[in-house]
Amino acid sequence: MITYYRDPDVLVTSTGVRMSGREYRLSDFAQVWHRQGRRSWSAVAGRGVLGIAMIVPLVIGAVGVLVALVINASTAATVALIGGGILIGLAAAPLSDILLEFVDRSYDKGSRRREIWARIRGSEVLLLDTDNAQRFGQIYRALQRALDHDALAH
């Protein structure tokens, strides 16, 4: 037996599938397809907010440097403004690293619901409903590989 995918809720092998607490033999599957739900604009907006949060320290630092060069202040004040602007701009690097991790996670999760459907013994059955795009892709590919393997075996 070949295991194509396994997690606590899903098992896809060369002999069968276990999803949503139900078990099916590969020979029970007549057709498999997937559907995508509507886009979650809150997930997209969240990514935008993270992007803005990464840029804000750079903008503030640049404004500090520009203000220091434009105003007619003492040398000490000009040096302080330029130094402060540069330090704020440099603070963007570690902050961006943290925020980019959140962006990566948001893309792994995806911005829409995904479903795997199958026609089993004449009925349409919802096998999986998830908003995790990475997990969905892994399970769907594993199911396709298992069905392809089963078709070659018969």
Automatic annotation (TrEMBL):
Q: Out of the domains of life, which is the source?
A: Bacteria
Alphabetically sorted, this entry's keywords are: Membrane, Transmembrane, Transmembrane helix
Enumerate the InterPro entries for this protein. DUF6232 (IPR045629)
Residues spanning the membrane: 48-71, 77-103
What is a single Pfam family found in this protein's UniProt entry?
DUF6232
Q: What is this protein called?
A: Uncharacterized protein
- Organism of origin: Actinoplanes auranticolor
